[in-house]
Amino acid sequence: MDITVWNQTAVKLTASSWFETGLMDPAPDSSAWGGAKWIGGGDEDLVLYAPYLAIFDVKYALTIAPGSTCASFVYGANDSRLMDKNKNIYQVASRKDGSYIKLELDISAVDGTPNGKAKLHVYRAGYKDTDTPSQPLRTFDVSTELINNANKNAEHVIEFRSTFRQIAILIDGNSSFTGAAAQAPAAGPQGGPPGGGRGGVANSVNLNPVGSGGNCIPFGMLCDIGFSVGPGQNATFREVTVRNNRLPNNTHFHESLAGSPYKGIYADAIAAKSGLSVANGRYVFSGGGQGVFLVRNPSRNLTPMLRTTFKTSGKAIEGARLYVTARGIYEVFLNGERVSDELYGDLVVDLRHPGRKNRQLKLRHSSLLPQLPPAPQVRLGIIPFSLPGKIHGARSGDLKLPIGTT
Question: What are 241-266's pLDDT values in tens digits?
């Protein structure tokens, strides 16, 4: 295609260019895919890299034993950026298990009177030099219509939605747990607990020491998760679940506690007799004389690869191009070597919202001629990366990627 333009003095400029277009056949059994298969993971092998997960939903059921008064769920523990003073702006260097976020249900004041209310304490430790582990960052009073003297030792379900920095909390399905026990509205079309998570609603709290805006480095990643009970305290947890915040809300973490012996991420703590046991489908904690603080990394699986093979004719190849696009970013390998040294080449993706018209994906093409071997058998692999950002939730200035493998 030749393009000719003239300027105001009638000087003519001519240049040549070309373009190609095509249609993608999305059918998985289409011959266009050339028998490409996912390797390194099945449908059940959802990739979770907890230190980089900034948007997620957590839900768990907690029972505080009679005679005990409090127990906690812990997450955001051992963020590597908070363990090295050169990796955070506050120059914090927290020890192992010294940085965490903790949600503690406290029923010590529940005595049957109108003012005897349970409390939900939210602690943050080791994220900033002003954090005090023994002092809650925020405390919520829980209505006696939800937790009272008659049911304080019954099972209560706590869930929260985390979006970068802000968590929105529900107790027993209620976002208005501090007042009248009104049933929470249904979750929005993107899934997750109701009550938001990015705004300053009554059931939410900002846990990011950097700030509350949407364009700041996020802290409050999932990281290590676990439990805490004080000395002499006994409690059980079950159905601890971490889900993707957006539909279809796939499960990132959940352990079946039915089998014996237990082989989950806390198995070493049971072997060490640290105060944890598993019985009747529950994590059972006994605080003993020193209490229990137990966190582990729930990360699992590596990023799978879409791989196919194709054959050349065996003759000399004069030219070859590869066209690739994806919802997000990716790396392409030919016979085990990267096709390009470009990093985050397709980071700018304009998907916008499903209801809008301009939904675009950037198409990248690369010359394969330098890497095509004379042998007729060629192996092509593509590793897609999930990017928490404009295409997967909300914006963030902190780019983080899961770990992939070829």
Answer: 999 988 888 899 999 998 889 999 99
Total-model pTM: 0.74
Order of strands, sheet of 329-334, starting from the edge strand that comes earlier in the sequence: 37-39, 305-311, 377-385, 329-334, 337-338
**Residue (of 185, 184, 209, 208) closest to 198 by Cα position:** 208
CATH of 50-296, one of 2.60.120, 1.20.1080, 2.40.33, 2.60.40: 2.60.120
Domain map (residue ranges) of the chain: 24-46+302-385, 50-296
CA gap 290, 135 in Å, rounded: 19
Rounded to the nearest integer, the mean pLDDT of the chain is 80
- Per DSSP, 223 falls in state B
pLDDT > 90 fraction of the chain, expressed in percent and rounded: 52
Using CA atoms, how far residue 105 sits from 86, 116, 184, 210, 279, in Å, is: 35, 14, 20, 26, 22
More confident residue, 344 or 168: 168
Q: Which residues contact 357 (CB under 8 A, 6 or more apart)?
A: none
Token readout for 400 is: 């983080």
Q: How high is the pLDDT of residue 309?
A: 81
- Evaluate whether 38 touches 224 at the Cβ level (below 8 Å): no
Phi and psi for 33 in degrees, rounded to 5? -80, -10
Domain made up of 24-46+302-385: CATH architecture: Sandwich (2.60)
Domains 24-46+302-385 and 50-296 alike in fold: yes
